[in-house]
Amino acid sequence: MRISLGFQKLDGHPLNASDDSPAVETIPDDESIYICSTFLDCDPDVLLRMERTLAPDELSRAAKFHLIRDRNRYIASRGILRELLATCLDKNPRDLEFVYGPTGKPSLRDSDQPTPRLQFNVSHSHGLAVFAIARDRNLGIDVEFIRPGFEGERIAERYFSAREVEELRRLPAEERTEGFFNCWTRKEAYIKADGNGLQIPLNSFGIALAPGVPARFLQGVPDKWHLACPTAPGGYVSALVYDGPSCEILQITVDHAVEKHTSRILN
Ligand SMILES: CC(C)(COP(=O)(O)OP(=O)(O)OC[C@H]1O[C@@H](n2cnc3c(N)ncnc32)[C@H](O)[C@@H]1OP(=O)(O)O)[C@@H](O)C(=O)NCCC(=O)NCCS
Q: How far, in Å, are 138, 206, 219, 233 from residue 222 at the CA level?
C-alpha cells in the first residue's frame, strides 16, 4: 500500500488548483522541501503494515525498547519514513536501505536512488514525528514538546551562547519556556543538518529565540545555512535548517489513518 500526499504551503494554505501538482517521480523538486508531521500512535493494522516494511536492524532496534509504546512509535516512525521516501522514489518501502554517518545520521544508500539524491531528516518528541525531505541539500529538523512550566535556565547556561542566555532572561516570565524550546530546537536542527553531531559546540553560535520574532541565526553559522520554523501542532515547536538556495517549504499531509484518532491524549 502506498500513501498519497496532500500539499500545503508553509502558511497553511493549500496549493491552488492552478499550481502544478508534482508528479511522483519528481517530488520533491530541487526548489522545495517537504515537511510532514504526524502523531505516531496508530491502529494495530497500520502498525503491522509499517512493521513489515522494516529492515532486520530496525526490527532488532525496535525489540530493545523497554516500553511497548516506545517500540510501536519507533516502528511507526520508521514505517512512515519509508512510505514517504518510497512515494517520492516510486519504490517499495521495504526495498529502501538506510546507511548511517559517523554520528548516526541516516541517509538512503546511493544506489537506491537517482540524482539529484533524496535527503531527509526526522525528529520525534512526545508521540509526534516530523519528517523533512528534499533533493540534494543537507537538512536537519527538530521538534520538541513544550513542557509547560519547564525551568530551562540551568540547561541554557550550560548549552546556549551568552547572548542567547541574555535574551532568554530578558523575556517576560510567561514567554521563557517557549523561548527556551525555540532556542533548543533551532540549535538541534542546525547540529542535525550539519550531521557531525556535537562537534560544533552548542554555545559557539547564536539564534534568535523570542516567541513571535522571526527565527534567524545571529552569529557563528556559515551563510549557506537557512533556518525556518515549520508549523507544529499546538504544544510543540519545530525548526528546520537546510543549505543550498533558499526554497519553498511545503507541508505535506499523509492521506490515510496513520494516526489513531482516539489517541490524541498523549502520555
Ligand atoms: C543524535 C541526535 C540527533 C539526537 O537528537 P534527539 O533530539 O534526541 O532526537 P530527534 O528525535 O530530534 O532525532 C532523532 C532522529 O534523528 C536522526 N539522527 C540520528 N543521528 C543523527 C545525527 N547525528 N544527525 C542528524 N540526524 C540524526 C535519526 O533519524 C533519529 O531517528 P531514529 O531514532 O528513528 O533513528 C543528536 O543531535 C544529539 O544527541 N544531540 C544532543 C542533544 C543536545 O544536547 N541538545 C542540546 C540542544 S541545545
A: 13, 12, 9, 30
- 5-17+26-137+245-254 and 145-242 in the same fold: yes
Which residue, judged by its Cα, is nearest atom 29 of ligand 1? 122
47-101 residue pLDDT tens: 999 999 999 999 999 999 999 999 999 999 999 999 999 988 888 999 999 999 9
Give the pocket of ligand 1 (CB within 6 Å).
77-78, 103-106, 121-124, 140, 142, 159, 184, 187-188, 191-192, 195, 197-198, 202
Asked whether residue 174 carries a pLDDT value surpassing 90, the answer given is: yes
Question: Residues 96-148: pLDDT tens digits?
Answer: 999 999 999 999 998 777 788 899 999 999 999 999 999 999 999 999 999 98
Report the CATH superfamily, name and number, of domain 5-17+26-137+245-254: 4'-phosphopantetheinyl transferase domain (3.90.470.20)
Q: Per 3-state DSSP, what percentage of the chain is helix, strand, and coil (rounded to 5)?
A: 35, 25, 40
CA of 102 to the centre of ligand 1 (A): 13
Per CATH, is 145-242 categorized as 3.90.470.20?
A: yes
Q: What is the pTM of this model?
A: 0.89
Q: How far is the CA of 18 from the centre of ligand 1 (A)?
A: 38
Gap from CA of 131 to ligand 1 centroid (Å): 13
249 - beta bridge partners? 33
Atom 13 (ligand 1): residue with closest C-alpha? 123
Strand 118-125's sheet: what is its strand order? 5-9, 248-254, 32-39, 128-135, 118-125
